[in-house]
């Protein structure tokens, strides 16, 4: 097996930097078999495979070289044949045959299936990515929506230095700048940091901060950052089922199940099954089929959520152990900040409770300090506009408010003041709402005098 795996190692080739002409030695993959190297799948999807950084000028680019992608579990075989490779049809077929034979040689006879004889050929790297995603169950409609999202993101980046054009574009695309947009934007930022490219992440972070002020969904998101996640009132199983039936999208249904997972239990599904049987007895076949489809979606959602929860709690427990053993906890938290999520604080809370029950005051204090450290560092990562609002809310007096406004003069804009007024409307506590309105009025008066 070791010999066959070696066939799929990257090949070293000589190239010249297209910017400065420096001669480079780079490693290029010609075969990606995710059955052997599953980690390469993520590199392909993120566009990080077969990229090169010039050692002289620092320019980075993608090398358009032929590539055969194989996923035995999904039974996918895709050949990327870029026009830049300038291969004739005969050369392309010869290379494809050679690479396919290498893959088949390492498979047991019963694994040599028909899909290996009819590989899909794509001419663009985007075509390769879409073929992989389609095998994962991502529909063409979802991919089209994602392409539209990326296109909008690029347009926003193009105009973010021009304030008036940025405002105009946000107004025009306000409905598109929603949950999925901010989720994708956050994922791009995180991926760039993971790839060691913070300079490329910075423009995206700056754009996200502006969109928190300028877009309708961004202002709601900012409210959650200031106040935390909104409370969800308790629901009985009957009402929960009605809400599930009324969900207008998979996203809405998934959010409902996420918040009320404990209510989607055996009794819930028993009640749903009884409704299905009653609908069938009363010859309401269409309703029965609709409820059956809902039951299947709910079962899939709960199974996925439970598996995610188990994995997240296991990861969080390991993260806490590593943090407790770290010689420099602050450095560790900063290096792994993206990993500290709600699951971490659930595990931390369970450990605090265990320390209380055991009467271990030393362990309890250490855990409390760890929790405080993580929260303080996480606060630093909030967008500056949101961080300033949180600081103003806890300012002890008006003099401190004026000082904070003066120290953060570039942040104090009409949009930022409008954001505070929006937050006042979102606030659940009247006291907080009154304080935000007062702060917005004071900031507006201060801005007129500045």
Write up this protein:
A hairpin with a 6-residue loop joins strand 4 (51-53) and strand 5 (60-62). The radius of gyration is 27 Å and the shape is globular. A four-stranded mixed β-sheet has the order 3-6-7-8, sandwiched between helices. Strands 1-2 form a two-stranded antiparallel ribbon. Helix 7 (179-194) packs antiparallel against helix 8, helix 12 packs antiparallel against helix 13 (285-325) and helix 15 (342-358) runs antiparallel to helix 16. The chain folds into five domains: 2-138, no CATH class; 146-214, no CATH class; 237-298, no CATH class; 326-380; 384-449. The protein is α/β, with parallel strands linked by helices. The protein is 64% helix and 8% strand. It has helices at 2-6, 39-45, 89-105, 125-135, 140-159, 163-172, 179-194, 198-214, 216-227, 237-246, 250-259, 266-281, 285-325, 329-335, 342-358, 361-380, 384-393, 398-407, 414-426, 430-449, and strands spanning 11-16, 23-28, 31-33, 51-53, 60-62, 67-71, 76-80, 120-122. It contains 20 helices and eight strands.
């Amino acid at each position: 097996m070791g010999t066959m795996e070696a066939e799929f190692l990257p090949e070293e080739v000589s190239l010249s930097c297209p910017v400065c002409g420096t001669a480079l030695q780079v490693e290029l993959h010609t075969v990606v078999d995710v059955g052997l190297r599953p980690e390469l799948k993520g590199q392909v999807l993120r566009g990080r495979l077969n990229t090169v950084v010039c050692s002289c000028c620092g320019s980075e680019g993608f090398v358009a070289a032929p590539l055969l992608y194989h996923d035995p579990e999904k039974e996918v075989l895709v050949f990327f044949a870029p026009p830049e490779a300038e291969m004739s049809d005969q050369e392309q077929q010869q290379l494809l045959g050679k690479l396919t034979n290498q893959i088949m040689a390492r498979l047991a006879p019963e694994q040599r299936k028909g899909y290996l004889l009819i590989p899909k050929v794509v001419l663009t790297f985007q075509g390769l990515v879409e073929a992989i995603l389609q095998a994962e169950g991502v529909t063409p409609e979802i991919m089209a929506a994602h392409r539209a999202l990326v296109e909008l993101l690029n347009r926003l980046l193009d105009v973010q230095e021009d304030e008036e054009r940025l405002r105009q574009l946000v107004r025009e695309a306000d409905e598109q700048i929603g949950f999925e947009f901010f989720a994708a934007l956050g994922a791009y930022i995180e991926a760039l940091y993971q790839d060691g490219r913070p300079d490329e992440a910075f423009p995206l972070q700056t754009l996200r901060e502006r969109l928190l002020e300028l877009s309708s969904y961004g202002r709601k998101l900012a409210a959650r950052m200031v106040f935390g996640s909104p409370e969800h009132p308790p629901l009985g199983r009957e009402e929960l089922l009605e809400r599930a039936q009324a969900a207008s999208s998979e996203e809405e249904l998934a959010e409902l199940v996420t918040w009320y997972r404990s209510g989607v239990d055996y009794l819930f599904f028993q009640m749903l099954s009884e409704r299905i049987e009653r609908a069938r007895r009363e010859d309401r076949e269409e309703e029965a089929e609709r409820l059956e489809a809902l039951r299947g979606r709910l079962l899939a959602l709960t199974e996925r959520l439970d598996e995610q929860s188990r994995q997240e709690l296991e990861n969080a427990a390991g993260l806490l152990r590593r943090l407790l053993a770290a010689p420099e906890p602050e450095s560790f938290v900063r290096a792994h900040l993206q990993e500290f999520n709600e699951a971490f604080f659930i595990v931390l809370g369970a450990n605090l409770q265990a320390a209380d029950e055991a009467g271990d005051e030393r362990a309890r204090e250490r855990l409390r300090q760890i929790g405080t450290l993580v929260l303080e560092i996480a606060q630093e990562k909030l967008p500056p506009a949101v961080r300033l609002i949180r600081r103003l809310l806890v300012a002890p007096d008006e003099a401190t408010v004026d000082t904070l406004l003066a120290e953060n003069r570039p942040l104090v804009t009409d949009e930022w003041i409008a954001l505070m007024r929006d937050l006042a409307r979102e606030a659940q506590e009247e006291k907080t709402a009154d304080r935000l309105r007062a702060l917005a009025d004071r900031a507006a008066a201060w801005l007129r005098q500045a």
